[in-house]
Amino acid sequence: MRWQEFRLLAVFLFLLIIQYGSAQKKDWRNIQNGSIIPDESYSDQPYIIKTNDGAWLCVMTTGSGHEGAQGQHIISLRSFDRGKTWIDKRDVEPGDGVEASYAVLLKAPSGRVFAFYNHNTDNTRSIIGNDPPYKDGLVRRVDSQGYFVFKYSDDHGKTWSKVRYTIPVRQFEIDNKNAYQGAIRFFWNVGKAFDYKGNAYVPLTKVGGFGEGFFTSNEGVLLKSSNLFQVQNPARANWETLPDGEIGLRTPPGGGPIAGEQSFSVMSDGSLYCVYRTIDGFPVYTYSRDGGRTWDIPQYLRYANGRLVKHPRAANFAWKCENGNYLYWFHNHGGRFIKEHPNRRTMAYNDRNPVWISGGVEKDGPHGKIIEWTQPEVLLYDDDPVIRMSYPDLIEDQGNYYITETQKDIARVHQIDEALLTKIWGQFDNRQRTLEGIVLDRTFHGGNFPQTLNAPSLPDFYQRDNSRADHGGTNLRNGFSVDIRFRLDKIAEDQILLDARNASGKGWVLSITGEKTLQMSLSDGRTQSVWDCDKNILEPNETHYVSIIVDGGPKIIAFVVDGILNDGGDTRQFGWGRFNPYLQSVSGTKEIKIGSNILGSIQLVTIYNRALKISEAIGNYKSILME
Questions:
Q1: Cα separation of 214 and 216, whole Å?
Q2: Which domains does the chain have, with CATH numbers?
Q3: What is the number of alpha carbons within 13 Å of residue 430 lying toward its C-beta?
């Protein structure tokens, strides 16, 4: 080979390496990889419907200032390429007017589109606060009071009606008890409007007052119009406020005062399902079997296996998909660590990253259809752990799934990997062992297992990026997983099940701690990261099957013990933990020491060169039960 040809080949290979590295850095779950929806600086509630001319129509609350600042208003945009580019930006309400906020969309069967939102029509500049921290007793953020209004568009969102229509909202007990006895009412909405048996339904969250944590109490109602879709002049639409009586959707008996941001779904038998947020550490759900007039006693949400779902003070939405299944957006932490916190009104807003998603399947219940929820998967994340993403919407288009979200500065659209959703919805019936990515797979019988195993090569997490001029680092977003089946006579400290560390400590080790937990420790010789399974779940003289998932996308270590994703239970707020984002590699020794000092036996060791999905780990466990 001539020198020139060699150089060309070397350059070609170098470019391939760079390209491969770039591909490795791409993770659709990272919100930075979504398509940006244009805004004016602040961005909130990017909600989308598909119009009859084939466009996506998005409404968003935006402005040049921060959330709640004067000049906050509603805009709309249209897209014909599933959110990659946007056209026809319009002011539903102008930026130089009074605050107009928190719009949701609803399309009539005729194609007419309605946008419902808060409007500070009276230009009220302050309201009475009923709790600290308002030193002079006045609240000067005024975007959550006034009137609940709507405009409409007959040209798919290209233009909007000049007339703004006010919806009469019935006064409830929570309004009577506010600082104005209901003469001024406090409210907002994030819930998706919907068509139910030809009636228009629009959610609304009523607010009791302002203080620590901003809203001091709230509850949910539904605004129903039986003729909005039929009348040409929307001023002739009739409206009623549901449920019957003077009390909206609240927390379960004994629960806290926050019960807001209700998300509704219409089920196959005509029942209505609703889920909403609290400051109790758990979300709440309820069913209505009569179109929203009455509701079951609210309960804290549970998975199908009976475990409570944990969630902070953040939007948690459920959507019914075209295939009849459901998806549920939430954040998978909380519990009593929020409920019992002295500053729960404020601290419960934190930790909205990552987003987790659960799948729902309809089942028959004693009074109608119910939804059973799967264990969750990581859906979206940002590399900055304190970024707070929220207020999503789900759009289905030609068999593809898209989700919008905002972290209040940038709103984005994300196409969701359908394979993830298929795994989630198939979780209940999945009893198949996952084979993809296995780099070590050994089963031992009769209590006999070798002292060592050949250590497989594991992918790096972080390395130098030679395509950068400064030769800085690049995040490879790789991962690995370890499945282990074992039985210990005693759950005692310092028992080492698997040890893949070299003499300098680089590598990983799986051991029992003084807290009687199973611990994964990772080290690259410079940096160490450690996380345990939940307490009080390992039992002596019982066979346990554990999957430890090290996911280099969101930098999360997760434990799935006997088919259950650890969520912290009553012993900690988080069941999943983060590892250091600059951890480079945990490839240590060439041999893994196996059970060198354990009191018991190891029956199976499987190592994957990728992060398993939670659903795959559950399937692995179930496959063992089938043996």
A1: 6
A2: 33-425 (2.120.10.10), 438-625 (2.60.120.200)
A3: 21
Coil, strand, or helix at residue 16?
Answer: helix
Arithmetic mean of pLDDT, 341-348: 97
Q: pTM for the whole thing?
A: 0.95
| Whole-angstrom Cα Rg for the chain | 27
Contacts of 252 (CB under 8 A, 6+ apart): 284, 297, 298, 299, 300
Intra-chain end-to-end CA distance of the chain, in Å:
57
Question: For residue 34, how far is the Cα from the chain centroid?
Answer: 15
- For residues 30 and 388, is the Cβ–Cβ distance under 8 A? no
Taking phi over 0 as left and psi of -120 to 50 as alpha, with beta for the rest, 447 belongs to left
Task: List pLDDT tens digits, range 394-442.
Answer: 999 999 999 999 999 999 999 999 999 999 999 999 999 999 999 999 9
What is the sign of the dihedral through the CA atoms of 605, 542, 572 and 357? positive
pLDDT-based confidence at residue 25 (cuts at 50, 70, 90): low
Cα-based torsion angle of the residue sequence 241, 244, 250, 253 in order, rounded to the nearest 10 degrees: 180
Q: What is the phi/psi pair of residue 498, to 5°?
A: -135, 135
Indicate the length of the chain as a whole number. Answer: 627
C-alpha to C-alpha distance for 262 and 316, rounded to whole angstroms: 8
320-342 confidence digits (pLDDT tens): 999 999 999 999 999 999 999 99
Q: Which two tokens stand for residue 173?
A: 């007990």
Torsion 34-37-38-40 (CA) sign: negative
Q: What are the structure tokens assigned to 461, written together?
A: 């997490």
Q: Which residue in this structure is represented by tokens 């779902």?
A: 309
Judged against a pLDDT cut of 80, whether residue 627 lies above it is answered with no
Give the mean pLDDT of the chain: 95
> What angle, rounded to 10 degrees, do the helices at 418-425 and 614-625 form?
40
pLDDT in the model for residue 178: 96
Question: What is the reported pLDDT for 133?
Answer: 77
DSSP string, 120-183: -TT----EE-SSTT-TTSEE---TTBSEEEEEEESSTTSS--SS-EEPP----HHHHTSTTTTS
DSSP lists the bridge partners of residue 494 as none
